[in-house]
Amino acid sequence: MAKRNYLVEGLSGAGKSSVYEELIQRGYKAISTDRAWKYDNAMWDQQKAVSELESPDPDVLFVCGSSRNRDRFLPYFTKVFNLRIDDDTMRRRLEERTNNEFGKQPEELELMLTLNRSDEKPAGAVDVDATQPLRQVVDELLRLAHCRTSRSDSRLPPWSKRGSAIGQSFVISESALPILQAAAGRRKRGTSDEFSDVLGRQTITRIEYGWSGYVLATLLPYLDEQGIDLVHSDHDDVASAISQTREVSVFVLTSVHRERYLAGLDPSAFDGAVLRRYYEELNEMTAEGVEYALLDGIAFLRDTLAPLQSAIVAVLIIG
Fold first, then answer.
1. 63 and 13, same structural domain?
2. What are the strands, taking DSSP E only, across 20-135?
3. 250 by DSSP, 3-state: which?
4. Are residues 134 and 189 in the same domain?
C-alpha cells in the first residue's frame, strides 16, 4: 500500500475534478477515478483500484471520485475527505458546467439536492468547505493530509503543464473563424496581441488541459489510429493559416466530430498501459504515470466536443 492514500469525494458539482487538476499542478500524484477506474455505470474496477492503492509508490496518493462500490475500498485509505457545498452552489455549478450533462434535468437536480441535504458520507469522513476558492480548498486538503501546499518543480514529471506547452480549447461561433484568422495575421504591437484579444471576445467557453500540451500532440495520432480523427475538418485552411502565423498547432473541431466521436471518447474505455506504451515508444523515453495525463487528454477532448452544435465550433490550440 502507498504510505498514505487519501480519498477526495463529494456529490456532483462538489469540485472533485477541479481539485484533482489542482493537486496535479502542485506536483502531487492524483487519480481521477472517473477517468482511470470507472466501468459499468459508475463502479470502480477492482483490479485497477487495488493495484494502485496497494502500490508502495508514491508516498502520498490522492484519489478523487466516488462510486457505488466505494465502501469496499475504504480500508485502503488513510483518511477520507468529503467536499461539501450548499444547495445554491450545487444548483449553480450543475447549471453552468459544460463537461457533464448530469444534473441539468429537474429530476436529476432534485436527486442531488436531496442527497446533499442527507449529508451521506463514509463514517469518519472529514468535511471540507468546497464553496471556497479552489486554491483554498486544496490548501485545506493538504493541511489535513499533513502535506506541503506545493512541491518543488523537481518533483514534477516532464509532462507536467508547468513550464511547458499549453493545450486549450476555445468554443466559438463558426462565423467568427474568418475574424480570428485575420487577427492571427496581424503583427503584435508592443504588449498588445490582437489575436488573443479577438479570441477572448469571441469565446463562449474555454476548456484548459491540465497537463503539457505535448501529451495531446502524442494522443491525437494515437486516436487517429483508433479511427478517431480530430485533426481534420472542413476548416483545415483556417487552422493551417493560424498555425503558421502563430507558430502553434491549431485544429478546428465541429459538430461533425461530436456526432462521430463523442461516444468513443470515454476515458474508462481506454487501457492506460496501452496508452503509456504508445507514448514511450513514440517519445523514446520511460514515462511512468503518463497514462493518467493521456486519460485526462481523452476527457479533455470529450469535454471539448460536448458543447459543439451546428454553427458552433472549437478551436484547439497546442503551444
1. yes
2. 29-32, 38-39, 43-44, 60-64, 79-84, 126-129
3. strand
4. no
Cβ atoms of residues 223 and 316 within 8 Å: no
Percent of the chain with pLDDT over 90: 67
**Range 66-76 average pLDDT:** 94
Q: Is residue 215 part of a domain?
A: yes
Whether omega before 122 lies within 30 degrees of 0, making that bond cis, reads no
Pairing of strands 126-129, 79-84: parallel
Residue 108 lies in a domain: yes
- DSSP-derived letter for residue 121 is -
Torsion of CA 52, 54, 59, 63, to 10 degrees: 40
Per-chain mean pLDDT for the chain: 90
Task: Provide the residue range defining the domain that includes 92.
Answer: 4-154
Indicate if 147 and 171 belong to the same structural domain: no
Q: How many CB atoms sit inside 10 A of residue 126's CB?
A: 15
Residue 246 sits in a domain whose CATH number is 3.40.1760
pLDDT-based confidence at residue 119 (cuts at 50, 70, 90): confident
- The length of the chain is 319
If one counts every other C-beta atom within 10 angstroms of the C-beta of residue 281, the result is 9
Q: Say which range, 24-38, 178-192, 268-282, has the weakest mean pLDDT.
A: 178-192
Task: Please give the grid coordinates belonging to residue 90.
Answer: 450545487
Render pLDDT for 215-226 as a digit per residue (tens, 0 to 9): 999 999 999 999
- Predicted confidence band of residue 98 (pLDDT cuts 50, 70, 90): low
pLDDT for the residue numbered 152: 55
Where a domain ends, among 122, 154, 186?
A: 154
Give me the CATH number covering residue 144.
3.40.50.300
CA distances from 233 to 128, 170, 229, 239 (A): 44, 16, 9, 9
Tell me, what's the pLDDT at 122? 86
CA 215, CA 212: separation in Å to the nearest integer?
6
| Pairing mode of beta strands 38-39, 43-44 | antiparallel
Q: Give me the number of domains the chain comprises.
A: 2
